[in-house]
Design a protein that fits this description.
Blueprint: E1 6-7, E2 18-24, H1 30-43, E3 48-52, H2 58-69, H3 76-100, E4 104-108, H4 111-121, H5 126-136, E5 140-141, E6 144-149, H6 152-162, H7 174-190, E7 195-199, H8 204-230
Parallel strand pairs: 1-5, 2-4, 2-6, 3-4, 6-7
The structure holds thymidine-5'-diphosphate (TYD).
Thymidine-5'-diphosphate binds at residues 26, 30-31, 52-54, 68, 83, 108-109, 113-114, 117-118, 169-170.
Amino acid sequence: MSPPVAPAAEAAGPVRGVFITFEGGDGVGKTTQAALLEEWLAARGRTVARSREPGGTEVGVLIRDIVLHHRGEIAPRAEALLYAADRAHHIEHLVRPALERGEVVIQDRYLDSSVAYQGAGRVLGRDEVRDLSLWATEGLLPDLTVLLDLDPALARARLVADDKPFDRLESEQSAFHDRVRAEFLALAAAEPDRFLVLDASRGSADLATDIQGRVQSLLDAHAEKAVGDAD
Ligand code: TYD
C-alpha cells in the first residue's frame, strides 16, 4: 500500500479545520452517528459542515444517480472513475473551503470506501484505487476515520427491515460485502492512528460516547498545535 499522504491538519495550504469521516458497509449506522456527532459538536459551539459521498454537491447528485441507480452494468474502472470524479469536485468545492474556514467537516464515506468497494469488492486493486483518489483530492486524508464494523449479514437484515429498494451496490452478493468488510478492517490495521474501529452491533448511544471521546482528544491536540504554530 502506498504511504499515507497528509492528514487535513498538515496538508499543503491553509487548512485549519478538522476532517472526520465515517466508513463501513451498507446499513451499519454511519448516518445516525454522523448526525449525533454533528449535534454534539454544534452544542459545543463548533461550526460543522456535514456532507457525504457520493452526492455532496450538485454535480455529485448527478454522479450519485448514475453509480447507484443506473440499470445495468457499469464497467468497474468506469465506476471507480465516477466515484473519484464526485470526490474531486466535492473536495475542491465544499470540503477544502470549509477546512480553510476552520470548520469541522463530518463526512459520510470518503476514499476508504473506494478502496474497499472498488479496490476489493470489484477487485481493481488497493493501490491503484487509492492513488486515483489521492490524485483526485490532491492528497487530502482525514484526521480521523470512524469505521463502524458489522457482519454484512446483520447489516443486510437492518436494510431489509428499512424496506427501501436496494441500490446497485447493496444488491451485490454476500461475497462482495465480505470482501468490502475485510478491506475496511485491513485499512484500519494499516493506519491505526487515523482509524477508530467500533463494533456497530452496540447501541447507538454507547457508540456516540466513544466517538465523542476520540473527537474531543483530536480537537484538544488540534488546539494545542494551533497555539504551538502561533508562537
Ligand atoms: P449510500 O446510500 O450513501 O449508502 P450508505 O448509506 O450505505 O453510505 O450509498 C453509497 C453506496 O456507494 C454504498 O453502497 C457504497 C458505495 N460507494 C462506493 O462503492 N465507492 C465509493 O467511493 C463510495 C463513496 C461509495
